[in-house]
Write a structure and sequence with these properties.
This protein has 79 residues and is mainly alpha-helical. 59% of the residues lie in helices and 11% in strands.
């Protein structure tokens, strides 16, 4: 990663996926479900505030907690 990119206030989908050890599709799914807020950066680009990602990491101890939250949201939308 270039020094400029590392100092950026925003991360792209692949950077977030690499940091969290998940696929880019997982990040897109989390964003679509409202778990991970993003900003549109162009026609198809999404960007994630670096501070938001670090808060996200601190909030969840492991991926199982995120999966549990997703399941709960799905249950709520089906009611």
């Amino acid at each position: 990663m270039s020094k400029t990119k590392a100092n950026s206030k925003f991360m792209d989908t692949q950077e977030v996926a690499d940091l969290l050890g998940v696929s880019a599709q997982t990040i897109k799914n989390w964003e679509a479900s409202g778990i991970l807020p993003s900003f549109k950066g162009g026609l198809r680009s999404k960007f994630y505030p670096r501070t938001t990602i670090y808060k996200f990491i601190n909030k969840f101890e492991n991926l199982a907690q995120i999966e549990d939250m997703l399941e709960e949201r799905i249950k709520q939308t089906r009611k």
